[in-house]
Amino acid sequence: LRGARLMLISAMVIVLACGDRAEAPAPASPSAPAAPAEAVAPPAETGSKLAYLRAQVGKYPRDVALFETEPLRTRLIELLAEQYPMLVESFGTQGPLSIDGPTLYAIGNKPHAAGDEQAILLVDVDRDVINVKLMNAEEMRDFRERNQAVEVPSDVQATIANWEDLADDTE
Questions:
Q1: Is there a contact between 157 and 100 (Cβ–Cβ < 8 Å)?
Q2: Which pLDDT does position 31 carry in this prediction?
Q3: Which residues are bridge partners to 139 per DSSP?
Q4: Number of other CB atoms surrounding residue 104 within 10 Å
Q5: CA–CA separation, 20 vs 8, rounded Å?
Q6: DSSP E strands: which ranges in 112-153?
Q7: Residue 103: closest CA among 79, 82, 121, 83
Q8: CA angle, 124 as apex, 122 and 61 as ends, to 5°?
Q9: Is 49 exposed, middle or buried (0-12, 13-18, 19+ CB in 10 A)?
């Protein structure tokens, strides 16, 4: 399963590296039922300022100074305010930037904190939206740009479930 996932990520990186060559959607068949309205905002009309992150998939945030790149850094500071340093510290131990559907994500832990400080970065590049989830002292906080949620990949859902289990164990 891991090998298949790695191949899928590699294929996505190759496709994304070729540039944005989106084709126009096929016209809907007159007999096809209308699609239900989505609960998420449509893609940003002007194009995402975070599209450059696609080229970083598979790389570790520290290796590409992810939290120093612009405009990500400025937007994270605006979103998190005084919590921005906690995000950076919580990526002392980290996984690579990954992609699942429309969501780019990375998961980090503060070194030597026994899992008490963790962070998740979620980016929907198509909609130009950032979410950050922080756990500190078994409390989970969710920060959303424009109050919009980003689709949470299954790997991230598993991490969140582990956080919830940890919080339950401390009560």
A1: no
A2: 40
A3: 136
A4: 22
A5: 18
A6: 117-124, 129-136, 139-144
A7: 121
A8: 45
A9: middle
pLDDT per residue rounded down to tens, the chain (171 residues): 433 333 333 333 333 333 333 333 333 333 433 333 333 444 444 478 999 999 999 999 999 999 999 999 999 999 999 999 999 999 999 999 999 998 999 999 988 766 678 999 999 999 999 999 998 876 889 999 999 999 999 989 998 888 777 666 555
φ/ψ of residue 84, rounded to 5: -55, -45
> Of the candidates 77, 72, 123, which has an alpha carbon nearest to the alpha carbon of residue 102?
123
Q: Tokens 């400025």 — which residue?
A: 74
Q: Bridge partners of 94?
A: 108
Give kind and range of the element (H or E) at residue 72: helix 72-80
pLDDT at 162: 82
Residue 36 is given by DSSP the state: P
Q: Residue 40 corresponds to which amino acid?
A: V
Q: Which residue has the tokens 């590699």?
A: 10
Q: What are the Cα distances from residue 32, in Å, to 12, 28, 37, 39?
A: 30, 7, 15, 21
Residue 152, C-beta contacts closer than 8 angstroms, at least 6 positions apart: 103, 122, 160
